[in-house]
Batch of 4 targets.
Target 1
Amino acid sequence: MIPNEKNFCGGAYRDWLEVYLTGACNGNCSWCVDKQGFKPKYQASVHDMVLAILDTGTKNVILLGGEPTLYHDIKYIIDIVNAHGVKVYLTTNGSRLTPGFVVSELRNLTGINISIHSYSLMENYRQTRVEINYEDLGKSVEELHRKGVKVRFNCNCIKGFIDSRERILEYIKFAKWAGADSVRFAELKNDRDEFVNLSELLDINIDNPFTQGCNHNIVISDMPVNIRLMCGFQTPNRPKPKNPPTVENKQILYYNGQIYNGWQEKGDKMEDQIKEILNKVATGELTQVEGLALIKELGVLDEEIPVPSSSGYCAY
């Protein structure tokens, strides 16, 4: 079973580098896919982060988190990387957006994704605990447009919130009011109970996003809309593809300055190494004294290490 060539796993977006700028976040989304994500203990300097980005030779960079606007040197990264001819994009929960913040910190962006999951900002707060002011939002979008920045609103479709055609249309009215250039509606990842099937809801007629495509561009009420579907590797609500080919994960730059193959999850290096030592003691390869000494030495190691995402195939 071969992935669609327009999917992330099918080779699309190879000229993009995703940058996990910070693990800090001021929101509390129940569906957050980063809660089990690997968070390095070491924070590389902003200088080293810029060098790591430029060394990849990428054409496009997207800054992610956590909440990337909490990163103290975000302006420096955007300005320097942009000055080297790289297009810089940002995904934010919108909590820090004000016209002044746009002017001082985000003036050299190419595009911004503002994640708002309801046309009611009070309802969005109930879901995310992120406070957004209507006036600041509208004026910030105006200021972003003055700087030539494309603005997209991202909305996770959640049962009980944006889960019908009527609510889709209400969200688009809200996005138009705020001045967004486009909207993305996305299905929830790894969530059976709150999952909204956008293929059925919007009559896209996609049964298997793995082969038929997980990204689809349509127009609703004169608004350009991207639909993000989840395949069976990302949701239990669709069958998992059989015998998929091995694919090379996209490179992700983490805030420790290291590049990993795909998004990482928390790992427990100590537990694995202790098991290995105990097995050697059990088989006689090590004495009990030798095994105990090795276990004591593990105290100098970090318990948390990166391991490939348990989604098994696609981290998006």
Note: The radius of gyration is 22 Å.
Target 2
Amino acid sequence: MNIKFYKYHGTGNDFIIIDDRNKFFDHTNFKLIASLCKRSTGVGADGLILLRSHDKFDFEMLYFNSNGYESTLCGNGARCIVSLANKLGIIKFNTVFQAIDGAHNAKITNNVVSIQMNDVFSIEKNNNMCVLNTGSPHYVKLVDDIDNFDVYNNGRQLRNSTEFAGDGINVNFAQIKSNVLHVRTYERGVEAETLSCGTGVVASAISVHRLSLIKNNVIDVKTMGGNLSVSFENNKQYYQNIWLSGPAIFVYSGII
């Protein structure tokens, strides 16, 4: 079988996306998905995304980590699939699509792709850290000298700790420098640091606001792979109208 794929990245967070509206791709074949994502012998990606038809919304997004297994929401991946849906003529510049955590609004404005995240009601905080779910579970910790911080070993230790045993958790390390939030993320399922993590960026932005370190409701974020923006409304009880915005870049297409 020949499989056409599209390679995209959102601030360095890269994905294989397949137009699977005819449902020809075996999404239960985790070994195949993992082999496609493997950088040394496959296409190479942080994850694989299937674009499928939906009877109520413009399309449906199925996301798989590079280990081959279906996972929770991927924010950068969602922005990339919106860009591909536009490229394929499925949508124009506004859309509503289905993901694993429900329906999401999205829009494309001057090559910036923005998605609306679900409301965040519960945030566990303690000194310089927060735990919250922004479509995927995240641990956020404030650190000094983020550029030289050992993200891999510290992230792996927290991700595999007994406190987060079972499904695990994504681990973000953050630092505010000149009113810009710098974020580095160790992602579960990838089991390494990625150049960017959309849901992690959102979790980090909300965390620094919840910890009263930044008072603005529009936060510029710098990741290892590029710049993103997070906006939200806060009524002191929960966070709503949350938007993640940034570039979603088509790299190339090919046949496997």
Note: Helices lie at 30-37, 75-87, 151-159, 198-210.
Target 3
Amino acid sequence: MKAIRSADNPRFKVLRKLVQSSQERKKTGLSVLDGTHLVGAYREHVGLPEQVAVSSSGRADVEVQALLARLPGVEQLELRDELFEKVSSVVTPTGIIGLVRTPQPELVARELGACVLVEELQDPGNLGSILRSAAASGIADVLLSKNSVRAWSPRVLRAAMGAHFLLRVHEDVDLAAVVQQFQGKVIATSPRGRPLFEADLSGNVALVFGNEGGGISPGLLSVAHTVVTVPMPGRAESLNVAAAAAVCLFERVRQMSASRSGA
């Protein structure tokens, strides 16, 4: 394991730039995984990272040691704790960071299965939560429009808790074009739709969610087959988009389960 003790070390500068700059991550094709959970999930579902960096105190951690043992042949760097704090993307450093090649899914298939479409979402936490719910509910593809938050940013990765590695995440997608050729039901969410629990979410569906403030654009809303809303008998004005997505996705799971059992 190579030890890095100075902030002037070129390897440290490269690592710090990757953590801090989305443009650098895009240029190099690398993503940054912070913590044993993300690095471990990548190892389990994708493969070996390109490189890992651990803090001096992290190297002594039993969980980090066990993870390092599962990364044969991967270049490992050890940073002094003060240096590691400068490259960690969290308030309390996790002790390990992995650099991985950002997965590039194939072009969106003409015959998509059940999927989630996300238009111009801005909050990393919201996107991470939606990805997590999508993976947990059995969705395979999540498609993001242009001007959405970058799916492989460190904050989205942390919020999704490894869901990226269970999905095909497509970015910069023309959602209107996808909707036009989608072989199934396109169901959009809006405050002014029919009650969600009255809609048929079974079978091949594309669930569409929009921007936190503006919702789904009129153009995309107009080509949806059904527009639904989550009934809210309480006094709250609206649901967070990630919460609304979770309700929709697991209502679909409930309906599919009821259909299989004949209920």
Note: The chain has a mean pLDDT of 94.
Target 4
Amino acid sequence: MKNNKIVIIGSGNVAAHLAFVFKKADLNILQIQSRNYFNAEALAKIVDADAVSDLSKIDTTADYYFIAVSDKAICQVVSEMPLVSGIVVHTAGCVPISVLDKFSFYGSFYPLQTFTKGMEVDFEKIWLFIEGNNEKTTENLLDIASKISKHVEKICTEKRALLHLAATISCNFVNHLYAISQNILEEAGLSFDFIKPLIEETAQKACKITPYIAQTGPARRNDQEIMQCHLNKLVDNEQISDIYRKISDSISDVYRT
């Protein structure tokens, strides 16, 4: 598709980042749709698009429709959308493309990244995973993906769901552990800044030499004395103690000889 006329459905984190990067790539964003008109209007002004709140009012002549809403809202959006001749995609990790089968051309456009409003990301470094309901749709999605990223791959629904699982563990779960660490430090009057170099080094090592080789710590050494010392510090917090024990047991099991 040469024109690349785009409608973005949603105004949250993913929708906003897609709008910004499409605009940066000089693609033609026709509309931003959101149930909250003020959110749609605010984003539309930034990317020189029109804002709409009613799904029945979206432009039906676009080439691409990006549904960038919460996973649980996708089916509702689809049910309210008019039939269109362009390609309709969602951006979810765990939702099959079959939810879009009321349309002739559909698929998924999954950016494997964490998005937060106000935090810019470099899309050229983001992996984009593409699935289309037929070969021509897939080719068109690969083409538009390649305009914003250097890392584009075809993927099936099942493997995309496994990617999402791995991403949830390595991003959301790990971030929650950072939050637990921050609370422990701040309750002791210590700064979270003290462990930021450790966090950065751990992430770099995991990427350079694999997480398995990079693993260190008392559970890796099966140092029961140190682990018990840590658990003693958590005696008043059963939930965190349980997390510590289960993760330590998992690490020890992996490296048990």
Note: The chain has a mean pLDDT of 95.
